[in-house]
Hints:
Number of strands: 14
Helix content: 25-40%
Largest sheet: 5 strands, antiparallel
Strand order of the largest sheet: 4-5-10-6-7
Order of helices and strands: EHEHEEEHHHHHHEEHEEEEEEEHHH
Structural class: alpha+beta
Radius of gyration: 18 Å
Mean pLDDT: 96
Low-confidence stretches: none
Distance between the termini: 48 Å
CATH architecture of the domain at 170-264: 2-Layer Sandwich
CATH superfamily of the domain at 170-264: CO dehydrogenase flavoprotein, C-terminal domain
Shape: globular
Amino acid sequence: MYSFNYNRVKSVADAAAALGKSEDAKLLAGGQSLVASMKLRLSKPSDLIDLGTIADLQGIKVDGGTVTIGAMTRHAEVAGSAEVKKAIPALASLASGIGDRQVRNMGTIGGSVANNDPAADYPAALVGLGATIQTNKRKIAADDFFKGMFETALQAGEIITSVSFPVPKRAAYMKFKNPASRFAIVGVLVAETPSGVRVAVTGAGPGVFRVAEMEKALAAKFAPESVAGIKVPEKGLNTDIHAKADYRAHLVTVMAKRAVAAALA
């Protein structure tokens, strides 16, 4: 690990100010990806700005038809929240399957979303549920936020403060996981939301994506058989040591069927 300056800030404004003082500064949320890359000397920030003591970035609030989660809320808190389990049980279930116990107790929703790992679970939740990302500068719809592998719409000096999820009529997330890391080889979230049926896929490609053909079929009839015959093209999907593109394409259909069945259960 290279040397760096450590900064513990007390507010989002302080964090933004510290971030603006250096071109090589990084925000530290849960640190589950950043610290590991630093230990391997793959990342060399000049400064780390620790968001862990900012109270305004923590907590879960359910207000009417919306669940709002602070950016520094841990995965374990989302998984264990009675409010989330009641309002969006699919979201609590998704959070409970992230990584291992250490990752769930250290990792944060804001850190995961900002990092945008192509095999992470939360991007499927945000896109599948039609969430909105609140930053210190603006609101960004999930459909506009995720740009590609480890790339988001965040601009310089922009900090995620919370994520808001509209409560769906029903939803479920199914994941074919890597047995070691529990990252998604393919994960699919299916939801009937206030804006219509949404199907979001993570792990299969360079970034999260929606499957319009499945959404149309499920809007007509929300049942597993509606997506059973829909095949996702393998072109552009990932091929790596864990799975080839054609297998991932097959898994999208399988996980989508399972997610619909779970949402109906």
